[in-house]
TrEMBL record:
PANTHER family xrefs: HYDROXYPYRUVATE ISOMERASE-RELATED, ISOMERASE
Active site: E137 (proton donor/acceptor), E234 (proton donor/acceptor)
Positions of the Xylose isomerase-like TIM barrel domain: 20-249
Sections of the chain in a coiled coil: none
Name of the protein described by the UniProt record: Hydroxypyruvate isomerase
Length: 251
């Protein structure tokens, strides 16, 4: 298992470009940036190269403004918007050599949303650059009210319906705990579909070990299951990120 740092949340006490150096100094070799679209692409790429970091994940779609919905993939009347924005995300992913693009479903419900989500994922999977994996991630209703993909069983249903090799499940311990009450059990249940993992504690996406989740049990379950992918710290670290990194020693 390999630790990664989500630079959209970690080192928020530093300017954006300085976070890459801080991550490298802390021992990370890979980072995530959820929405890199507002920063010059060349600067993000240069910061990764200068610090020996792989940028492994970005989100789609780009956020054009602060109040924009988090995604359109499951919204029936936004198919054109989804396709336009996912193509832009692909351009960024290729330029940054990202391995994963998290496709955000958006706010919707019902059979039409399910069908739209599946259809859009199939279209995106067929259009994606070679070597890129699309991920879907259930988000809990407390953090994202109205979000379509709000349950791991629903995510499994979507993946089975889509049945594309380059579409997989993004596991997040914080959301899993908030939705289902047992992050470890959720990992064990859906391990076969998980291609990427993020961690944060519940109930407020805090530093691992500060809340309700049994991280020793989670990491043991990951090891037992043979998970050898990235484990990305995506949490609110408090005033000094370096003080929140003890979880790395548990991997």
């Amino acid at each position: 298992m390999k630790p990664a740092a989500n630079l959209s949340l970690l080192w928020q006490e530093l300017p954006y470009l300085d976070r890459f150096k801080a991550a490298a100094r802390a021992g990370f070799t890979a980072v995530e940036v959820l929405f890199p679209y507002d920063e010059p692409l060349t600067e993000t790429k240069a910061a990764c190269a200068a610090n020996g970091l792989d940028l492994i994940l970005i989100n789609a779609p780009p956020l054009a403004r602060a109040d924009q919905p988090r995604g359109f993939a499951a919204v029936p009347d936004q198919v054109d918007t989804f396709r336009r924005d996912i193509i832009r995300a692909f351009r960024y992913a290729e330029a940054l050599n990202a391995r994963f693009v998290h496709v955000m479903a958006g706010n919707a419900e019902g059979d039409a949303a399910f069908e739209t989500f599946c259809r859009n994922l199939i279209w995106a999977a067929k259009s994606a650059p070679e070597g890129l994996t699309l991920t879907i991630e259930p988000l809990n209703p407390s953090a994202m009210p109205g979000y379509f993909l709000n349950d791991y069983a629903l995510a499994k249903h979507v993946l089975d319906e889509v049945s594309m090799k380059n579409v997989g499940l993004q596991y997040d311990s914080y959301h899993a705990q908030m939705i289902h009450g047992n992050a470890v059990e959720i990992f064990e249940t859906y391990r076969g579909d998980i291609v990427h993992a993020q961690i944060g504690d519940s109930p407020d996406r805090s530093t691992p070990g500060s809340g309700d989740i049994d991280f020793a049990g989670l990491f043991t379950a990951m090891t037992a299951a043979g998970y050898d992918g990235w484990i990305s710290g995506e949490y609110n670290p408090g005033p000094k990120t370096e003080d929140s990194l003890n979880w790395m020693k548990m991997l």
